[in-house]
């Protein structure tokens, strides 16, 4: 007791003391000047939608400049190509098969499991934490109504589920903002968080109390957009009060914009890419019908480019603000997306499949303390982000995280890195998507599919749907056989157009990847007797 009473704990030493009593976290040598961290997560943004990854039609000058100064990961993949499970993976550093949360799972992250999420761990370590934008991650038995997510941050300026292009219509919390469009509203929230003394009216008129940032503490700001997601893009109205960007930019390309390679309009899709008894195209969500015709697709591509350029401008404003307040030399920026999106390739729309169009995302890390300007070819995944954020703050990621910190790659340290990336889709619902598992190497992608059933048409998660999801977490591990397979030589067939699974010349490669997939699905799940870190959302009647 004498020792405890006489210890004076400084801010820098407090995290280390906490770690002594918390087995979930550990620390490497804490940085003398802990960096600020800004994590920017977009929604439904394909890997090839930005200039630094080859986009020629839409402009992203600020992101391209960040890429020149930072580190670009050319082969970055999410582990699940659907919003909620992917975002949970970013927070917890876990595969979906481990965390067990999806739209059809009937589950939420337990409060206990959330203690090992990167925002909670950083807050425990002395960081000010802020969240701005969209949340699609339920926590606790009451899910989005529990208050656990927003109460775990020091600064919360966000809405649960979709925001829409005009968020004030859906979420009163944004009513104090001057702009009406999503990216500009969130940008104002960012400015208010970074420089609270210059935005007093923002705080006074806020619908809920917002804690002002302590300038003496490091911060971690998560910016989570609901763009260029179809839900928001489809609601663009081109009001006279909208920024000119959203009314006229790129519209001169409306009739000339190149269509994606292997695009097929609905009336020409005679031979579907996947068997009709596997992918039920007739059940696809109507919100993706814009892939059905060339005119509708081009309209959507124009809107998508507009919103991505809007995000780019937000990042430009963000960097200017960091410079203005002297934060630029010690603030790290990470930019990526929750998954990609199909633009009518082979007649396919939406996401929730295991092709590059769905799983591959843009990813860059800008650290002003390092030279940067490099492009890295390693296979990296969304589960690597949480360990990276903790590593940047001097924390050792907890054992619950399945990803790896990306810092050794950036710092050119000798490290054994993965040669195979695993992904999956367990969102098999009334919308017709099949369950599938995949492995991706530098050269190939292998995908295997499982029997699909036509589920009852309801947007609510029923007990039967939740039970089917729970079974899917272990089904292929305990003996369920695949009903269809694909193999693509992605190094020479980047659009995954030619299925080589029955080509005898690739038989050994197929068998090797098949075995790797079986091994990695076991790794992703972990011990079979170990339950997922979830809590049920289904109420007993």
SSE diagram, text form:
Layout lengths: L1 H5 L7 H8 L4 E2 L8 E7 L18 H9 L1 E7 L5 H10 L3 H4 L7 E3 L1 H4 L3 H7 L3 E8 L12 H4 L3 E6 L21 H13 L5 H5 L14 E6 L5 H4 L10 H4 L46 H31 L6 E7 L4 E2 L5 E2 L5 H4 E2 L2 E3 L7 E8 L3 H8 L2 E2 L10 H4 L10 E5 L10 E5 L4 E5 L13 H10 L11 E5 L18 H19 L8 E3 L5
Parallel strand pairs: 2-7, 2-8, 3-13, 5-6, 5-7
Antiparallel strand pairs: 1-14, 3-11, 3-12, 4-19, 8-12, 9-10, 15-16, 16-17, 17-18
Helix pairs in contact: 9-13
Number of helices: 18
Number of strands: 19
- Content of β-strand: 15-25%
Low-confidence stretches: 1-27
Please report the first level of CATH classification, the CATH class of one domain: Alpha Beta
- Round the mean pLDDT to the nearest integer and report it: 92
Please give the share of residues in helix. 25-40%
Quaternary organisation = single chain
Shape: globular
Give a structural overview:
By secondary structure, the chain is α/β, with parallel strands linked by helices. 28% of the residues lie in helices and 16% in strands. The protein has a domain at 65-275 and 288-410: Alkaline Phosphatase, subunit A (3-Layer(aba) Sandwich). The chain has helices at 2-6, 14-21, 61-69, 83-92, 96-99, 111-114, 118-124, 148-151, 182-194, 200-204, 230-233, 244-247, 294-324, 356-359, 385-392, 407-410, 463-472, 507-525; strands spanning 26-27, 36-42, 71-77, 107-109, 128-135, 155-160, 219-224, 331-337, 342-343, 349-350, 360-361, 364-366, 374-381, 395-396, 421-425, 436-440, 445-449, 484-488, 534-536. A hairpin with a 5-residue loop joins β9 (342-343) and β10 (349-350). It is globular, with a radius of gyration of 23 Å. The protein starts with a helix and ends in a 5-residue tail after the last strand. Residues 1-27 have low confidence and may be disordered.
């Amino acid at each position: 007791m004498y020792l405890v009473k006489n210890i004076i704990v400084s801010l820098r030493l407090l995290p280390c003391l906490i770690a002594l009593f918390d087995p979930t976290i550990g620390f490497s040598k804490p940085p003398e000047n802990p960096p600020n961290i800004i994590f920017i997560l977009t929604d439904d943004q394909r890997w090839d939608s930005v200039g630094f990854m080859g986009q020629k039609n839409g402009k992203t000058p600020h992101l391209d400049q960040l890429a020149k100064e930072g580190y670009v990961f050319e082969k970055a993949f999410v582990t699940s190509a659907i919003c909620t499970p992917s975002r949970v993976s970013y927070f917890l550093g876990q595969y979906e098969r481990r965390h067990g949360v999806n739209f059809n799972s009937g589950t939420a992250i337990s409060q206990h499991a959330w203690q090992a999420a990167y925002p909670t761990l950083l807050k425990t370590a002395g960081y000010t934490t802020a969240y701005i934008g969209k949340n699609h991650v339920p926590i606790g038995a009451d899910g989005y109504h529990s208050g656990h997510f927003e109460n775990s941050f020091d600064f919360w300026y966000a809405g649960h589920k979709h925001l829409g292009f005009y968020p004030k219509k859906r979420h009163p919390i944004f009513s104090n903002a001057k702009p009406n469009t999503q990216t500009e509203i969130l940008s104002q929230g960012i400015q208010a968080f970074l420089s609270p003394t210059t935005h007093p009216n923002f705080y006074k008129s806020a619908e809920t109390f917002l804690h002002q940032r302590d300038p003496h503490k490091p911060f971690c700001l998560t910016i989570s957009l609901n763009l260029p997601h179809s839900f928001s893009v489809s609601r663009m109205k081109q009001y006279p009060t909208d920024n000119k960007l959203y009314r006229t930019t790129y519209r001169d390309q409306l009739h000339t914009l190149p269509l994606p390679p292997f695009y097929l309009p609905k009336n020409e899709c005679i031979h579907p890419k996947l068997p009709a008894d596997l992918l039920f195209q007739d059940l696809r969500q109507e919100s993706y019908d814009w892939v059905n015709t060339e005119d509708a697709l081009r309209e959507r591509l124009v809107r998508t480019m507009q919103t991505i350029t809007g995000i780019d401008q937000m990042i430009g404003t963000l960097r200017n603000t960091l410079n203005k307040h002297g934060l630029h030399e010690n603030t790290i920026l990470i930019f990526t997306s929750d998954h990609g999106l199909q633009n009518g390739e082979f007649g396919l729309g939406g996401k929730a499949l295991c092709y590059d169009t769905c799983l591959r995302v843009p990813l860059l890390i800008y650290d002003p303390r390092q030279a940067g300007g490099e492009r890295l070819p390693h296979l990296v995944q969304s589960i690597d982000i949480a360990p990276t954020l903790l590593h940047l703050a001097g924390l050792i990621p907890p054992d619950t995280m399945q990803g790896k910190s990306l810092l050794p790659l950036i710092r050119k340290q000798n490290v054994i890195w993965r040669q195979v990336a695993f992904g999956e889709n367990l969102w098999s619902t009334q919308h017709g998507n099949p369950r599938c598992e995949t492995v991706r190497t530098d050269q190939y992608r292998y995908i295997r599919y499982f029997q699909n059933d036509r589920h009852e048409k309801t947007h609510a998660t029923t007990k039967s749907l939740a039970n089917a999801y729970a079974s899917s977490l272990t089904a292929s591990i305990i003996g369920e056989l695949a009903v269809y397979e694909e193999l693509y030589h992605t190094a020479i067939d980047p659009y995954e157009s030619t299925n080589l699974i029955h080509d005898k010349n690739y038989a050994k490669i197929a068998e090797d990847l098949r075995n790797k997939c079986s091994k990695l699905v076991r790794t992703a799940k972990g011990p079979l007797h170990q339950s997922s870190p979830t809590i049920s959302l289904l109420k007993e009647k």
